[in-house]
Design a protein that fits this description.
29% of the residues lie in helices and 21% in strands. It is an alpha+beta fold. The protein folds into three domains: 1-52, Uridine Diphospho-n-acetylenolpyruvylglucosamine Reductase, domain 2 (2-Layer Sandwich), CATH 3.30.43.10; 57-112 and 159-215, Uridine Diphospho-n-acetylenolpyruvylglucosamine Reductase, domain 3, CATH 3.30.465.10; 222-323, CO dehydrogenase flavoprotein, C-terminal domain (Enolase-like, domain 1). The protein has a five-stranded antiparallel β-sheet. Strands 9-10-11-12 form a four-stranded antiparallel β-sheet, with helices on both faces. Helix 2 (32-37) links the parallel strand 2 (24-26) and strand 3. The longest helix has 18 residues, at 306-323. The radius of gyration is 20 Å and the shape is globular. The mean pLDDT is 96. GO terms for molecular function: FAD binding; oxidoreductase activity. Residues 1-220 form the FAD-binding PCMH-type domain. Keywords: Oxidoreductase.
Length: 326
């Protein structure tokens, strides 16, 4: 680990001032500290924001949910309003990491975490995300766990967060505070696809601080849930995952929100699946037909071709679990 300066911010203004000068924000530190140990990240100044008042979960005036950036994963998953209104969020969090990490890691830090690609974390390997212009060793290396959606010749790394898949499905908004004031960024625009600049991962400006993630009010009743498929039962990242939320009235699907994880360079919204569901009545045939659209545009690599079929099956299974059949 390389030497660094450490500042504990006593208030929001102090944190923003330090961030504007190039400081890196840290709270739980469950991702950043690991990357510093491996010398993948070498920040010169850490700004500890764990004392800021961003630890509230509240229902918005319109009936949505606002989760403070410093609420831990465990606290968010256990919160009665989260479990009642959006069980897909609780399930995604409870299927993430270990209990010890969930007690430390924050919601803001979770969506800012970086890929678990082994080439990114191996400082001797070519990686455009870590060292722009060096190449992507995963393209012709062992790429079983890598992305099949949203890839480019510059990067094929997946985004590791489970709860980010739920946020993408629910069309959440990330609230930011920075030198230029407050702004909200739709979750779909907050995490950036690699394009030719895979080292740019977030639509966050210098010195900006995540203050909250807001989930919009959705029609009730709302059924939702999260399914994660992985090589082992616990403490493992997804090969594929599916977050599904359905609003049904009169036996007909009125609204559908579906996203996939483990297969995209960012949490992957599935609008073609959603369009196929809306206006239809639940049935085994419907779930199968809708899930067939989940892998549209997929570009599998040598070792991860299985993900195309696995994605379809994962989405179909979770549609059945959430939507049921008649």
């Amino acid at each position: 680990m390389h030497p660094f300066a450490y500042t504990r911010a006593s208030g929001t203004r102090e944190a923003l001032d330090a961030g504007r000068r190039g400081g890196r924000y840290i709270a739980g530190g469950t991702t950043l500290v690991d990357l510093m140990r491996e010398t993948v990240e070498r920040p010169g100044n850490l700004v500890d924001i764990s004392g800021l008042p961003l630890r509230e979960v509240s229902v918005t005036e319109r009936g949505g949910l606002r989760v403070g950036a410093l609420v831990t994963m465990a606290q968010t998953a256990a919160h009665p309003k989260v479990r009642t209104l959006y069980p897909v969020i609780s399930q995604a969090l409870e299927l993430s990491a270990s209990a010890q990490l969930r007690n430390m890691a924050t919601i803001g830090g979770n969506i800012m975490q970086r890929t678990r690609c082994t080439y990114f974390r191996d400082v001797t390997a070519d990686c455009n995300k870590r060292d722009p212009g060096s190449g992507c060793a995963a393209l012709h290396g062992f790429n079983r766990t890598h992305a099949v959606l949203g890839t480019t010749d510059s990067c094929v790394a997946t985004h590791p967060s489970d709860v980010a898949v739920a946020f993408a499905a629910l069309e959440a908004t990330v609230h930011l505070l920075g030198p230029d004031g407050k702004r909200g960024v739709p979750f779909a625009d907050f995490l950036l696809r690699p394009g030719n600049t895979p080292h740019r991962e977030h639509a966050i400006r210098q010195g900006e601080l995540i203050t909250a993630v807001e989930i919009p009010a959705l029609p009730r009743p709302l059924r939702s849930g999260y399914l994660k498929v992985r090589d082992r039962q616990s403490y493992e990242f997804a090969l594929t995952s599916a977050a599904v939320a359905l609003h049904m009235r009169g036996g007909v699907i009125r609204e559908a929100r579906v996203a996939a994880g483990g297969v995209g360079t960012v949490p992957w919204k599935l609008p073609a699946v959603e369009r196929h569901l809306v206006g239809e009545r639940p049935s085994d045939a419907l779930w199968t037909a809708a899930a067939e659209k989940a892998a549209e545009g997929a570009r599998p690599l040598e070792n991860n071709r299985f993900k195309v079929e696995l994605l379809k099956r994962t989405v179909e299974r979770q549609l059945r679990v959430v939507g049921g059949t008649k």
